Amino acid sequence: MTEIYKTDALIAEDIDAYLETHQHKTMLRFITCGSVDDGKSTLIGRLLYDSKMIFEDQLATLEADSKRVGTQGEAIDFALLVDGLAAEREQGITIDVAYRFFATEKRKFIVADTPGHEQYTRNMVTGASTADLAVILIDARKGVLTQTRRHSYLAHLLGIRHLVLAVNKMDLIGYDRAAYDKIVEDYRAFATSIGITDFTPIPISGLAGDNITTRSTNTPWHDGPVLIEHLETVELDQTADQTKPFRLPVQWVNRPNLDFRGFAGTIAAGQIAVGDMIRVLPSGKTSALSRIVTLDGDLDRAVAGQAVTLCFADEIDCSRGQVITSAKEPVEVADQFEATVIWMDEDELIPGRAYWLKLGPLTVSATVAQPKFQVNVNTMEHLAAKTLDLNAIGVANITTDRDIPFTAYAESRDLGGFILIDKMTNRTVGAGLIHFALRRASNIHWQATDIGREHHAGLKNQTPMVLWMTGLSGSGKSTIANMVEKKLARMNRHTFLLDGDNVRHGLNKDLGFTDADRVENIRRVGEVAKLMTDAGLIVITAFISPFRSEREMVRAMMQPGEFMEIFIDTPLQEAERRDVKGLYAKARAGQLKNFTGIDSPYEPPEAPQIRIDTTAMSVEEAADLIIARLIP
Amino acid sequence: MTLPTLTHLQRLEAEAIHIMREVVAEAEKPVMLYSVGKDSAVMLHLAKKAFYPSPPPFPLLHVDTTWKFREMYALRDRAARQAGMQLLVHQNPDAIRQKINPFDHGGLHTDMWKTEGLKQALDLHGFDAAFGGARRDEEKSRAKERIFSFRTASHRWDPKAQRPELWRVYNARKARGESMRVFPISNWTELDIWQYIHLENIEIVPLYYAAERPTVIRDGLMLMIDDDRFPLQGEEPVMRSIRFRTLGCYPLTGAVESRAQTLPEIIQEMLLTTTSERQGRAIDHDQAASMEKKKQEGYF
Question: Which end of chain B, N or C, is more open, meaning fewer C-beta atoms within 10 Å of its C-beta?
Answer without folding.
Answer: N
